[in-house]
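Could you join me in thinking about how sequence relates to backbone shape in a protein? Label the sequence line and the structure token line clearly, so we can match residues to local backbone shapes. Once you have written the record down, we can walk along the chain together.
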Amino acid sequence: MVGNIANFTKIDLLRCLLRIEKPVSRVFLSKSLELGEGTIRSILDILKERGYLESNNIGHYLSKKGKSITKKIKDDAHIKKIAGISLFSNKKIVTIQIKNPAKPINIVALRDEAVKNGAEGALILKYDKKIRFYDPGYKANLSEIENKLKVSKNDLVIVAYADSYKLAEYGAIAAAISINNHLADIINKLK
């Protein structure tokens, strides 16, 4: 007998972990992650099997191991939905800030990785006194983005946009994984 094909990715496992800060329901996760409840059930089963989650009658919550891994993720990267950016009218925007990226930055490869994973496009920015493009040839007023983020010196900021937050988030996370070894190691342990 052939079973159902998994309808989620490693990125969905990570997205789910990062949504759980207090006990939450499958319904909350389904809406928040834009995934079906059956898919959420499968994701939760995997995360519980790996020891990252526990459940009770109140909901699903992070185990000690889950808290430890999400803290490590948040120490390296900060993911945020932002709205009201005139540069991307009518698009959903997700940013991911990476603190002091260790690898050399190939902005074309990062943008391609974001697009390959669902985003319509992505800007790759850096912060050094103010937020600006990695490629000095591009000029645009980025103050709207900077005002919505808490950036620090040497932060890399990936701004992914799409018609849905889900696709923008996939793109931003995929690009971040490609330049952050620690994040890549964590996501590879999830599945």
Remarks:
- The longest helix spans residues 165-179.
- DSSP finds eight helices and seven strands in the chain.
- The radius of gyration is 17 Å.
